[in-house]
Amino acid sequence: MDRTSRRTRRGAVTGALTALALAVTGLFTGGAATAEAGTVEAGAVGAGTRAVPRHAVTGYWQNFDNGARVQKLGAVQNEYDIIAVAFADATATPGKVTFTLDSAGLGGYTVEQFKADIKAKQAAGKSVIISVGGEKGAVTVNDAASAVAFADSVYALMREYGFDGVDIDLENGLNATYMTRALKSLAAKAGPGLVLTMAPQTIDMQSPSNAYFKTALAVKDILTVVNMQYYNSGSMLGCDGKVYSQGTVDFLTALACVQLENGLAPSQVGIGVPASPRAAGGGHVAPDVMNRALDCLAKGTGCGTFKPSRTYPDIRGAMTWSTNWDATAGSAWSRSVGAHVHGLP
């Protein structure tokens, strides 16, 4: 996710070559039916008084104006259960992040109003978290000192604004060892109510040997959901070893299967898509395609040519970039997908 209206990254040729390389080198593990082992389900949220729903919808709220409808946080559509504030920014100190509300870009929205809206959303049962990174975010956590700085600064933002947790959307590299250390430290500070989400690119979750995937597995005892970005990636490898093109039911289901069969619990897997064609450079799917993919994974119905060998009724749900682009398109995505997610068994 980024601050421009459209994004381009890694086309179909790159994706296909990546898939071929993974197949040749044997990085894909094939997976075992151990997804539920050692994981936690929904868990407490915030101060421990709320819980992320069994099936949840995550949406990114833009702290900037990039041509999508400008929203105050309080105007975010009710269908969103987790609202990720985009984005916290890097500072001159490695690992340390900060957040500055773009009051001017958001029509004079004040910090006091923002904090009040966070509380109101939480009172309505929603979780509000701070997202770190984005496509252009350069947050570096690659040693012990930067891990400490990251955990301390994120926790400081949680205390200042009342955030329920953090989203890791680092698209320019991630050190599994020290990000794991940072997130474990943050969880120790925040307590059992921490909401921890991740938004890796498709390339980052093709194999458990990849740093992002390794991090997710290392923190799965505190992990809420991984909402991989199923867009801006071109073709990628599914869990059956075949290459699938973005923008299809098969792409969503076959790539979700990679995570589901390699250690993450179904409750820790969400499908991330753009809210409208304008929200990304490629990979947008109509809401009914998203709903079919969720049904395929949860119930074994609505599948395309790929059908998983088993169902995952505890699949967490869906994510979109962004609540603002959703609003620009008349909130069609959240009305359709939100209702469908909340209606899953």
Automatic annotation (TrEMBL):
Keywords: Glycosidase, Hydrolase, Signal. It comes from the Bacteria. It is an enzyme of class 3 (hydrolase). Residues 55-345 form the GH18 domain. SUPFAM superfamilies: (Trans)glycosidases. Its EC number is 3.2.1.14. It holds the Pfam family Glyco_hydro_18. Residues 1-37 form the signal peptide. PANTHER family: ENDOCHITINASE (PTHR45708:SF49). Belongs to the glycosyl hydrolase 18 family. This is chitinase.
